[in-house]
User: What shape does this take?
Amino acid sequence: MLTEDGSFHGDEFVPHLGFDMQMLRTIAENHGFKVLQVYPYAEVEKQVQNGDINRYGQFVLFAEKI
Assistant: This one.
């Protein structure tokens, strides 16, 4: 999931609020991976606590250990 404002999980504690694609790419490359592809591919719609429908982006990162 792409970085979001915390509304996806509401009051539930989670250890992260999604991921920044480029930051995750850099982390992977700094730990011995060759990133083959990274791109957004879909959105999930979810009703949040106030009743609104929010969209949350998803992405794919393909990498191989070098």
